[in-house]
């Protein structure tokens, strides 16, 4: 019995040992499976028990179980430095989360502000009765588009924007010709700024062109296409859709029946030839044949013949 270092943690074991009959078997048979062969319990938390045991003639030495089971004293468990570190990390984490939420809130506010501004411009340009005010509002819309800082907003409202501009293009008053040209410029600029939506906008333009019965409106659609091609320029922003554009322009050139539409479609084709010569090369022969036919038509005005001759030189 003197081989054991007593503690409260082994009191039940001691009682069981005392109750065993002499000669009933080895002592270690009664030890529970969770206790090592040399059982010793010592902790700062049991200081009072150790003192009592020392008075009773027992030694209170540090034992194996302290390290075997990873038990720590009360002072080791509650170190102020550890608590402070955890608290500081927690506070920094809260600040980071708060900053992130604040940035998200600001972004949402800015996006909402841009959407409201675009919606306001579209509403004013549609409902304003004064021609000069409408023109000024439309120029503000073109400036808004040209900045390109709110592409997400413009994509969200692309259908509404195109519909509003299309209504302006189809107005019948000749007094609004400048306004309608400005609307065509907005369509072309929108196509360039939203280059990843260029295919959708070009398809919309050619669909509207083919469905329109008014030559002056068709002319404005071609003006919009020319503005888009000119704005894109050498950046090759439309390389992935240029074959589609060239095919539609070639079809338009083959079917136009007025000098104005002829000249405007040729301007668009010339822009393709300058920036995408490899695409235009497949349509070169057909384009030249059509222009030759217009050039030798003696019923056409002399001004048109001279213009077609100049376009030949450009090719």
Automatic annotation (TrEMBL):
Keyword Kinase among record annotations: yes
Residues making up the signal peptide according to the UniProt record: none
Tagged with keyword Transferase: yes
Ranges of residues in domain Serine/threonine-protein kinase SMG1 N-terminal: 7-109
InterPro entries (UniProt xref): ARM-like, ARM-type_fold, SMG1_N
Keyword annotations of the record: Kinase, Transferase
GO molecular-function terms, A-Z: kinase activity
Gene3D superfamilies xref list: Leucine-rich Repeat Variant
Classification via SUPFAM superfamilies: ARM repeat
Region (Disordered): 1-25
Recorded superkingdom: Eukaryota
A Pfam match: SMG1_N
Protein name: Serine/threonine-protein kinase smg1
Organism: Ilyodon furcidens (goldbreast splitfin)
Gene: SMG1_3
